[in-house]
């Protein structure tokens, strides 16, 4: 099992805190550091600030040496696919070949209204995603690329500089729902399928649908990494992990009582002592989770990362 950290940058994560987490992640042996791509607090706390996800990654690329860097995920409504490909390739060069590109259809309607982005229907957003993924993949892999679709048109684009990584920076697609269109898109273009939350049984079913789509397309399922993103609250004893859960609960204006909140997150978050979390992670490993994105909500809590790196990562290496 491989482990990355994930930060919700729109929840008031400052540049200084990004640097501190990146330094800790690199020092402690995490494989990568990823960010959401939002401009408005998903927890609906309007006072929380945000930065641009790809600008943050560019800065981190210049300040780190080993960490993989990417988005989970960039919505198609924010950027033209040529712009996304150019930005990601620039970060790939700054980092010396460490960028990964997560792409999604977008979902946070309030954010789109606040910032003036169009927010078409779910079907239309998936139409955009299908064309954008094909364009980004084509620009990253072909010397000259042309495309004509219902949404975008590119004519003989010579995409220079080419990315550092060959054949291209990894493309991450995913979600909780794996319908026919997502299966086909993953089978054609994805290097990784990432799902958010879910019990081991639910995650197994999602992965099985993805693998079926890969086999139908004549592609070896082993070519696509299967990963999980979820939250974690670990403590050396019960008092410590419960304190971290409570701090998380207080950050969420919609959370209920402590017991209600704990019952809800225990379903598919990693909660407990290191021994309990390792046991839970092994259940996910058994259903095919190869890489875990640990959502580091308590971004000021450096001891949390130290504990995970010392007690959990070696047990599942």
Structure description:
This protein is of the alpha/beta class and 317 residues long. The protein has a single domain (2-316), classed as Luciferase-like domain (TIM Barrel, Alpha-Beta Barrel). It is 44% helix and 19% strand. The protein has eleven helices and twelve strands. The strands form two sheets. It has an eight-stranded parallel barrel, surrounded by eight helices. It has a two-stranded antiparallel ribbon with strand order 6-7. Helix 2 packs parallel to helix 3 (81-95) and helix 3 (81-95) crosses helix 5 (122-141). The mean pLDDT is 97.
Distance between the termini: 6 Å
Number of strands: 12
Strand arrangement, largest sheet? Answer: 1-2-3-5-8-9-10-12
State the secondary-structure class. Answer: alpha/beta
H and E string: EHEHEEHEHHEEEHEHEHHEHEH
Portion in beta strands: 15-25%
What does the overall shape look like?
globular
Helix proportion of residues, in percent? 40-55%
CATH topology: TIM Barrel
What Rg do the Cα atoms give?
A: 19 Å
Number of helices, where a helix is a run of at least 4 consecutive DSSP H or I residues: 11
Q: Unreliable segments (pLDDT under 50, ≥5 consecutive)?
A: none
Largest sheet: 8 strands, parallel, barrel
CATH superfamily, by name, is Luciferase-like domain
Question: Based on the structure, what is the oligomeric state of the protein chains?
Answer: single chain
Average of per-residue pLDDT values: 97
Q: Number of folding domains?
A: 1
CATH class: Alpha Beta
- What CATH architecture label applies? Alpha-Beta Barrel
């Amino acid at each position: 099992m491989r482990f990355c950290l994930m930060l919700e940058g729109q929840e008031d994560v400052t540049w200084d805190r990004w640097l501190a987490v990146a330094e800790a992640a690199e020092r402690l042996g995490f494989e990568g550091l990823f960010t959401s791509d939002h401009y408005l607090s998903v927890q609906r706390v309007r006072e929380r600030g945000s930065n641009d996800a790809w600008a943050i990654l560019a800065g981190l690329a210049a300040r780190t040496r080993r960490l993989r860097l990417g988005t989970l995920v960039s919505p198609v409504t924010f950027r033209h696919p040529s712009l996304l490909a150019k930005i990601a390739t620039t970060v790939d060069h700054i980092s010396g070949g460490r960028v990964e590109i997560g792409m999604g259809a977008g979902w946070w309607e309030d954010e789109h209204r606040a910032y003036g982005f169009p927010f078409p229907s779910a079907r239309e957003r998936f139409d955009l995603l299908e064309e954008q993924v094909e364009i980004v993949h084509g620009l990253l892999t072909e010397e000259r690329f042309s495309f004509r679709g219902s949404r975008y048109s590119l004519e003989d684009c010579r995409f220079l500089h080419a990315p550092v990584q060959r054949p291209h920076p990894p493309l991450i697609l995913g979600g909780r729902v794996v319908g026919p269109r997502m299966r086909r898109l993953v089978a054609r273009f994805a290097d990784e399928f990432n799902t958010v939350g879910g019990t081991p049984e639910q995650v197994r079913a999602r992965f099985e649908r993805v693998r079926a789509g890969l086999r139908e397309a004549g592609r070896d399922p082993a070519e696509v990494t299967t990963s999980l993103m979820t939250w974690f609250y670990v403590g050396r004893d019960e008092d410590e992990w419960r304190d971290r859960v409570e701090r998380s609960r207080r950050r969420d204006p919609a959370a209920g009582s402590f017991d209600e909140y704990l019952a809800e997150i225990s379903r598919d978050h990693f909660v407990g002592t290191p021994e309990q979390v390792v046991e839970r992670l092994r259940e996910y490993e058994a259903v095919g989770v190869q890489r875990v994105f640990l959502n580091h909500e308590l971004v000021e809590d450096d001891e949390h990362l130290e504990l995970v790196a010392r007690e959990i990562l070696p047990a599942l290496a």
